[in-house]
Amino acid sequence: MRTPLLRGLMRSLLVPVAATAMVLLTGSPGAHAATDVSTVAEALREDPVYVDPAASDQLSSADAEALSDKIRDAGKPVFVAVLPADQPERDIFLNLRTETGITGLYAIRSGDRFGARADTAVLPPRGVQNLVTAVRDVDDPKAQLNDFVDAALRSARGTAPASWGDGGGGGVDTTGLVVAGAVVAAGGAGAYALVRRNRRRHEEEQRTALEKLRVVVDEDITAYGEELDRLEFHPAEPGADDAMRGDYEGALDSYEEAKRLMDAARKPEDVKAVTQALADGRFSLALLAARREGRPLPERRPPCFFDPRHGPAVADETWTPPAGAPREVPVCAADRARLADGRDPQVREVDTEYGRRPYWDAGPAYGPWAGGYFGGGILPGLLVGTLLGSVMAGPAYAADYGAGYGDFGGYQGGDVSGADFDPGSFDGGFGDGGFGGGGDFGGGGGFDGGGF
After folding, report:
1. Pick from 158, 366, 199: which is nearest to 272 by CA?
2. 98-119: per-residue pLDDT in tens?
3. Cα R_g (the chain), whole angstroms
4. I need a surface site. Which of 188, 213, 283, 422 has the fewest CB within 10 A?
């Protein structure tokens, strides 16, 4: 990681050259050609703050350096671009994120307007909106950007991208780098080692969480395999038709897929696909049972909330957790009968440091496991008021276990994804990718307008 001395030397070399190049390109200091987004992206891959030469009246070189140092010292994937007022706005955030290729939180000040977007692994959309709203009325660019960055560094998850500390940088004077590097090599190596230690610690935490999940998922896979063994169905048995054989084949395929995915899992969020496969398999078994018994085919429903091993739910029933609010949860036939009789349902419990607990009160690691079973947007309502629901609602959860309820992305803050990211998970409420609805700077001052 570059020290302040090295970064200052680089800026002293780059800023005059960039300003001179801008004058040569535009013909006069008063003229300005729109900055190419790829130019901004290239700069941000090397430094967290970019100030267009035509916008240097908004943030001085010294202030930009101080802001950059603040972000670097915090080690968070926060990017800031200061652009001229006439910069084209449409899709600017999406294009900048694509060109930069790094999972992070991106803020842009263009003229007197300000906005931000983030990958949800770094900060959820509502968090981005809140940060932007808090600084919307701050007129001074320096104060606005510093206030935003101060708050963002407290909330953003992930680590600084490795490219900030690799000593490279397109367009940088090689002689300047060599001279400065000789002065600060030891300090830079130490700082870079710290970033690597933090990343290794995060990876170890992820491995520990995955091992907790592995125990539970292996139990699920085993229980499903035993269910297949008890099925007593043979594709050639009398009365079997192609539909039944298709259901049976689907159930077997889901079993093999779940085992394969669990063997390949490397992060907690990888478990979501495993439990999705198990849910698919149990629905295939439910279809097969209905065909064999001549009953109407069941509709696709989520698994039983109390224990997904019970199979697909048959109804939604009101349930009130201890010290919680009533909510409708999907239940299997057996648990529906227990609730009707005033008895407790059979709840899936897992091991914790405090003993056996229901999975929804066992910690954040079980979010991906639940997300695979209860995707499609129903999970927040099921988990409201529980420990798992509380931790999943915070920005820390998005970085460590995935990007929101039932949507667990593989890239963490600071990771290089290139253009391989979901635009729907890079958000801040900014319409079509610009600063407001329709690509303009609207917004009306509310949360729905992205904080403008």
Report:
1. 366
2. 889 898 999 999 988 899 999 8
3. 27
4. 422
